[in-house]
Amino acid sequence: DAEVSTRKKTFTEVQTERLDQAERTVLIKCPPKLNEKKLLQYLSSHGNVESHFFFESFGINALIEFSEKSSIASLQDAVGIPNAAEHHVVPFKSRLFTFTLKNPVNRPAEETPLHLSPQCPIPVKNLIQKLCLADSICSQMYMLLNEYQLTEENIKLRFLACSLVRDFARAYFPDSTVKPFGSSVNTFGRLGCDVDMFLDFHDTRKHATKMKKGPFEMEFQMKRLPSERLAVQRILSVIGDCLDNFGPGCVNVQKILNARCPLVKFSHQPTGFQCDLSVSNSIAIRSSELLYIYGCLDSRVRALVFTIRCWARVHGLTNSAPGAWITNFSLTMMVVFFLQKRSPPIIPTLDQLKELADAKDRHIIGGYDCSFVSDLRKIKPTKNTETLDVLLGEFFEYFGNFDFRRNSLNLRKGKEVNKPESSPLYIWNPFEQDLNISKNVNQPQLEKFIATARESAWILQNEDKPQRVINKEPWGLAALLVPFGKSNSSKMNRMKGIGSETIRSLLDSLRLNNANSQQKAVGK
């Protein structure tokens, strides 16, 4: 019930609640052996502890959420400065603390085992063993989702990481906030994924409009720079230096300021995350909200996306390093498009969501229309009742036979449309309609995707589940998560020629052109 109630909230409501939680939260590094009850008793002397959990990142850590923000100030007043005998310390008082026992030798009887909240997904080998115990492919897909999705604890840690960075930013920009975007908030994040965060000055801009009323006008004197890009680079450079020089646990700080979207990359050891910090990227935030809406509308959406992304990772179709591979974002959009194309559709197109938008949902960003409804209650539930096992097989069939040579995927309309240019895979950016989000994908990678999709469709159609269970072999989804071996002769026959898709396409094109030429000659 709690999850359903969370799902009904708008994206903005959820983000606001999470950011508020993070501001009332501290992180404490604990000794390996600890009396949990006594730690909580001590912390309760500073205020009511709303929630807490323990996790591992360079040792044992506790995330403590207080009911009131004032409890943190009370705790900070009572905490000591580290001994500077060996190293001189930077006197920045953050919300990161270290808890030690004064006489650890005398208290072995009081120690109790701590339950550690998992912060990374289980290995695929272990996942396959679990999936084999399920009773259907649908159950397997929901089991995979449950193992890989972000946990409540992990989400709290992500918002805390942003809140700790915000503490530095506010030293320079008191009205600024730091918010997560992308996989951390769009409901499609996998345990272990990076934290994308952005520095937002939206509150500052809102404050500026307040002074426009009345017979006079007063405004702040501010540094003026020739371009917004230069301002972004300067701001990120300073925040990057702050994190590098003064941020406890912030290591490997890299300032990548000349990228198309300038950013600062760093590792945040206290939470265990790799982080990317940029300055307000409004279209990226709208993309996060759009995916949040799709993820909330129907439970099958997330289950199918997580399944396809795990399948792609196992078969080397995606890769964490940049390159010519299909990205997780592109894969997610392919699943969304596929679900828009079902009959009846499982999720609406972006144009349909735009029709439901009211005045407060209207967003024009850089000339692009990014408007769509934010209130989930306004979107009618689908009448489609297809089961996940059917959808999984149909997904592989659909894209295993898709005419990538001619057609592109347009999520605004939910239609296949002619490709505007010759990229092997063309997926229209939902908002910046002149951009292809899969422009990086080359022909060999696309052909590998097609071949693996066809093989997966064949396995699902032809497998003998009872026999595989008797033989203690992976079945259903589990069978698709085992890398396909070259010893499988039937597979080799099915895949013959798939690698030469480009050559076949060229030959078809030549025949077509030749036929057209002959027709024209006859006509003359």
Task: Report the biggest beta sheet as strand number plus sense, adding barrel if it closes.
Answer: 5 strands, mixed
| Total count of helical runs of at least 4 residues | 19
* Helical amount: 40-55%
Domain tally: 2
CATH architecture of the largest domain: 2-Layer Sandwich
> Quick one: how many beta strands?
13
The order of strands across the largest sheet is: 5-6-9-8-7
Q: On the 0-100 scale, what is the average pLDDT?
A: 88
The gross shape turns out to be globular
Task: State the separation between the terminal residues, measured CA to CA.
Answer: 73 Å
Sheet/helix structural class: alpha+beta
CATH superfamily of the largest domain: Beta Polymerase, domain 2
In percent, how much strand structure appears in the residues?
A: 5-15%
CATH C-level name of the largest domain: Alpha Beta
CATH topology of the largest domain: Beta Polymerase, domain 2
Low-confidence stretches: 1-5, 486-493, 495-513, 515-524
Overall radius of gyration: 27 Å
What are the salient characteristics of this protein?
524 residues, alpha+beta, Beta Polymerase, domain 2, Poly(a)-polymerase, middle domain, four-stranded mixed β-sheet, 13 strands, 44% helix, MTPAP-like_central, RL, NT_sf
Brief digest:
This protein is an alpha+beta fold. 44% of the residues lie in helices and 13% in strands.
